[in-house]
C-alpha cells in the first residue's frame, strides 16, 4: 500500500479503480520526407475517419434529442469537404515534402486564423471548429485513442490539472472522485467539484502514470489517496463511506422544513448552479431559490457564441422549472480562468485583473444585449434576479441598467412580454465593498462573491497552487468587508446574500447570521447540512433582552408566474 497526500476540496470517500486522464500532446516531425503520395494517402484516410466519427456523433446526438449539438457535428463533417479553405492548403504543404501531421497543424491553424480575422461573428466562431477538427485529425494520424479520455467504467479520475471546460464535459455518472497534481481550492474546477460533491484532492504532487487501473481509496477527510490499500484501510473507509451515506439519508428529513434559528431568525438558503441540468439538484436538495446561476457555463458549454434564442431557452428552462422560486442569473463572467476560443480575447499578463466579466460586456454591447434580451424574455416565465459581476464603480451599474432598459423597450416594441425582475450586483471587489452605500442606492440586492473578494482583498491569485498556505479565507480584512457590506445594504433596504464558497463554510455560518445576512447561496449539496446547522443555532445570546431577531432587509415575495405565451417567431419556436 502507498499513501500520498494532497489538499482536499471535498470531504468524502471514493473507492474504486484509478483512471489517468491525459489529453495528448503531440511532437510533430518537421523534417522533410520523400514519399509525398503516401503522406497524402495518410491524410485522406484520416480525413475519412474523422468525417465518419463526426457523422456518428451527429447520429448519436440526434437520437438523444440534442438537435443543437448534433448540428455542430454535422457542420464539422461538412467542413472536412471544404477543399478551398482546408484540404487544398494542407495538400500544398505536403507537396513541399512535409508530413501529414505537419500539414494538418499548419493548414488547419492558418484556416482557423483566417476565420478568426473575419468580421462576421458567425465566421469568427468557426475558428474553434477548425481547431477541434485539427485535434481530431492529429489524434487519428498519431493513432491516439481519445474517444473517451475518461474511460468507460466508474473510476477515480487522476489528472495533471483540469480546465473548467474539460470538467464540465466529464461524464458525471462515471466519476467517483478527482485527484489533480495542480489546481487551487478556489478555482472554478474546484467549485464544480464541490457542487457535484465529488471527493476531490488537489496538489497531489506524487500523481504517477503507473497508478492507472490500480485499486485505490481517496480519503477526503484525511486529504490523501491510498494506492492498493491494505484490508484494514478498506474495511475502515468502507464503513466510513457507509456512515456518510446514512448521515446523508438522515438529512433528507430536513426537506420542507424552514431555515430558521431556534430563536426565530430566518435565512434563505439558495443554490449555486451552472445551467438547466442543475434544476433537479436544486429541487432534490430543497433549495429555496437560486442565488447564483453562473451563466458563463451556458457559453462554455457551447462551441459557438450562443444565440439569443439558445440563451433564452436555457434561462427559461431554469426559471420555469423552479418557479416561483427566485432565480438570480449572473450575466456572463468570462475571462480570467474561464476562457473561450470564440470570444477571441487577447492574452493578458494578469487576466484576473484584466478584461473580464462586466468589462467585456460593457465593451461589447451587441454581445451584452443578446444576453440581456434573452434574460428579459425569460423573465416572463418565473421569478428572475439579474446580477452584474465584477462591479467596481457606480457608473458601471448605471450603464448596465441603461442598456437593460433599452433592451426592455425594444422587446416591448416588438410585442414580446417581459416579466418583473430584481436587479443586483456581485460585491466581489474591495472597491465595491467599500462603496456599498453608494451602490446600494442603485440595486435591489447584493451578493457577496467571496472567492474573488478574497483574491482581490488579499492579493492572492485564486488559481495559484503555490499560494494555498497564504490564502486565508477568514482573513479579518475580508470578514470586515463582508460585515460592512451587509450593514451598508441594510441601511438602504437592499438585501444581501453571500454566493462565494465561504457561504457554505459551517464555521462562519453563525457569524453571518449574527450580522444579519439575508441569504446564503451554496452548492446544492450543502443546503441540507447548512439547514441543519441553522436550525441548531440560537442567536439570542448575542442580543440584548429586548432586541428582536434581525428582520430581512427586503422581503422577496414569490412573484406570480405569468407564463403567457409570447408573440411572433419566438412564440412559435419556444412558446
Ligand atoms: C465569487 O467570486 O465568489 C463568485 C461567486 O464568483 P466566481 O467564483 O464565479 O468568480
Ligand atoms: Mg467571482
Features:
globular; binds phosphoenolpyruvate; Enzyme I, Chain A, domain 2; 43% helix; alpha/beta; Glucose Oxidase, domain 1; TIM Barrel; 3 domains; 21 helices
What's the topology here?
Blueprint (H helix, E strand, L loop, with lengths): L1 E4 L1 E4 L2 E9 L14 H28 L3 H13 L3 H13 L4 H17 L4 H21 L13 E5 L4 H5 L6 E6 L7 H9 L3 E3 L12 E5 L4 E4 L3 H21 L16 E6 L5 H6 L5 E5 L1 H5 L7 H15 L3 E5 L27 H6 L1 H14 L4 E6 L5 H20 L7 E7 L2 H5 L1 H5 L4 E4 L1 H9 L17 H16 L3 E4 L10 H6 L4 E4 L4 H9 L32 H7 L1
Parallel strand pairs: 3-4, 4-5, 5-6, 9-10, 9-16, 10-11, 11-12, 12-13, 13-14, 14-15, 15-16
Antiparallel strand pairs: 1-8, 2-6, 3-7, 7-8
Helix pairs in contact: 1-2, 1-5, 3-4, 4-5, 11-13, 13-14
Bound molecules: phosphoenolpyruvate and magnesium ion (MG).
The site of phosphoenolpyruvate has 11 residues, from strand 10 and helix 17.
How would you characterize the overall build of this protein?
The protein has 575 residues and is of the alpha/beta class. It has 3 domains: 36-142, Orthogonal Bundle (Enzyme I, Chain A, domain 2); 155-252, Glucose Oxidase, domain 1; 261-563, TIM Barrel, CATH 3.20.20. The chain contains 21 helices and 16 strands. It has helices spanning 36-63, 67-79, 83-95, 100-116, 121-141, 164-168, 188-196, 231-251, 279-284, 296-300, 308-322, 358-363, 365-378, 394-413, 430-434, 436-440, 450-458, 476-491, 509-514, 527-535, 568-574; strands at 2-5, 7-10, 13-21, 155-159, 175-180, 200-202, 215-219, 224-227, 268-273, 290-294, 326-330, 383-388, 421-427, 445-448, 495-498, 519-522. It has an 8-stranded mixed β-sheet with strand order 1-8-7-3-4-5-6-2. Strand 12, helix 14 and strand 13 form a beta-alpha-beta unit. Helix 1 (36-63) packs antiparallel against helix 2 (67-79) and helix 3 (83-95) packs antiparallel against helix 4. The longest helix has 28 residues, at 36-63. The chain is globular and about 90 Å long. The model is unreliable at 555-575 (pLDDT under 50). Residues 191, 292, 294, 333, 428, 449-452, 499-500 line the site of phosphoenolpyruvate.
Amino acid at each position: 500500500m502507498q499513501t500520498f497526500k494532497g489538499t482536499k476540496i471535498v470531504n468524502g470517500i471514493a473507492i474504486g479503480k484509478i483512471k489517468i486522464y491525459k489529453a495528448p500532446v503531440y511532437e510533430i516531425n518537421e523534417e522533410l520526407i520523400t514519399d509525398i503520395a503516401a503522406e497524402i494517402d495518410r491524410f485522406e484516410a484520416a480525413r475519412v475517419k474523422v468525417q465518419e466519427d463526426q457523422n456518428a456523433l451527429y447520429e448519436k446526438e440526434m437520437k438523444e434529442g440534442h438537435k443543437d449539438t448534433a448540428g455542430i457535428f454535422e457542420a464539422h463533417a461538412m467542413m472536412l469537404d471544404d477543399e478551398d479553405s482546408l484540404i487544398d492548403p494542407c495538400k500544398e504543404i505536403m507537396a513541399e515534402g512535409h508530413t501529414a501531421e505537419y500539414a494538418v497543424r499548419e493548414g488547419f491553424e492558418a484556416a482557423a486564423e483566417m476565420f478568426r480575422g473575419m468580421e462576421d461573428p458567425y465566421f469568427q466562431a468557426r475558428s474553434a471548429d477548425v481547431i477541434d477538427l485539427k485535434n481530431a485529425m492529429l489524434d487519428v494520424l498519431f493513432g491516439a485513442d481519445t474517444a473517451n479520455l475518461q474511460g468507460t467504467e466508474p473510476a477515480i479520475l487522476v489528472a495533471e490539472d483540469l480546465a473548467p471546460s474539460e470538467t464540465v464535459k466529464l461524464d458525471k455518472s462515471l466519476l467517483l472522485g478527482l485527484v489533480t497534481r495542480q489546481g487551487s481550492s478556489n478555482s472554478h474546477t474546484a467549485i464544480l467539484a464541490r457542487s457535484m460533491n465529488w471527493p476531490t484532492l488537489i496538489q497531489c504532487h506524487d500523481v504517477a502514470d503507473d497508478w492507472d487501473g490500480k485499486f485505490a481509496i481517496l480519503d477526503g477527510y484525511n486529504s490523501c489517496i491510498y494506492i492498493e490499500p491494505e484490508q484494514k484501510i478498506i474495511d475502515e473507509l468502507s464503513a466510513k463511506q457507509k456512515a456518510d451515506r446514512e448521515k446523508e439519508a438522515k438529512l433528507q428529513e430536513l426537506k420542507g422544513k424552514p431555515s430558521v434559528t431556534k430563536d426565530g431568525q430566518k435565512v434563505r438558503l439558495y443554490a449555486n448552479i451552472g445551467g438547466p441540468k442543475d434544476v433537479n439538484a436544486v429541487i432534490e436538495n430543497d433549495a429555496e431559490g437560486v442565488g447564483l446561476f453562473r451563466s458563463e457555463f451556458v457559453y462554455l458549454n457551447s462551441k459557438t457564441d450562443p444565440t439569443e434564442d439558445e440563451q433564452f431557452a436555457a434561462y427559461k428552462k431554469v426559471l420555469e422549472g423552479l418557479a416561483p422560486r427566485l432565480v438570480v442569473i449572473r450575466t456572463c463572467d468570462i475571462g480570467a480562468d474561464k476562457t473561450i476560443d470564440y470570444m477571441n480575447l487577447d492574452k493578458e499578463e494578469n487576466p484576473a485583473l484584466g478584461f473580464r466579466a462586466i468589462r467585456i460586456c460593457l465593451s461589447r454591447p451587441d454581445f451584452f444585449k443578446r444576453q440581456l434580451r434573452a434574460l428579459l424574455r425569460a423573465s416572463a416565465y418565473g421569478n428572475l434576479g439579474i446580477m452584474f459581476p465584477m462591479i467596481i464603480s457606480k457608473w458601471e451599474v448605471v450603464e448596465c441598467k441603461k442598456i437593460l432598459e433599452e433592451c426592455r423597450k425594444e422587446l416591448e416594441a416588438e410585442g414580446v412580454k417581459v416579466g418583473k425582475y430584481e436587479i443586483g450586483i456581485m460585491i466581489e471587489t474591495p472597491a465595491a465593498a467599500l462603496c456599498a452605500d453608494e451602490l446600494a442606492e442603485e440595486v435591489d440586492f447584493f451578493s457577496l462573491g467571496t472567492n474573488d473578494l478574497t483574491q482581490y482583498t488579499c492579493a492572492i491569485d485564486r488559481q495559484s497552487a503555490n499560494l494555498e498556505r497564504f490564502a486565508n479565507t477568514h482573513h479579518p480584512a475580508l470578514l470586515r468587508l463582508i460585515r460592512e457590506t451587509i450593514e451598508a445594504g441594510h441601511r438602504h433596504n437592499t438585501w444581501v446574500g453571500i454566493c462565494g464558497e465561504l457561504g457554505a463554510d459551517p464555521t462562519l455560518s453563525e457569524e453571518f447570521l449574527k450580522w444579519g445576512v439575508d441569504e446564503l447561496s451554496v452548492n446544492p449539496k450543502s443546503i441540507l447540512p447548512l439547514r441543519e446547522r441553522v436550525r441548531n443555532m440560537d442567536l439570542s445570546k448575542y442580543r440584548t433582552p429586548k432586541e428582536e431577531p434581525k428582520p430581512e432587509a427586503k422581503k422577496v415575495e414569490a412573484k406570480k408566474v405569468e407564463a403567457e405565451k409570447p408573440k411572433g417567431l419566438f412564440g412559435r419556436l419556444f412558446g
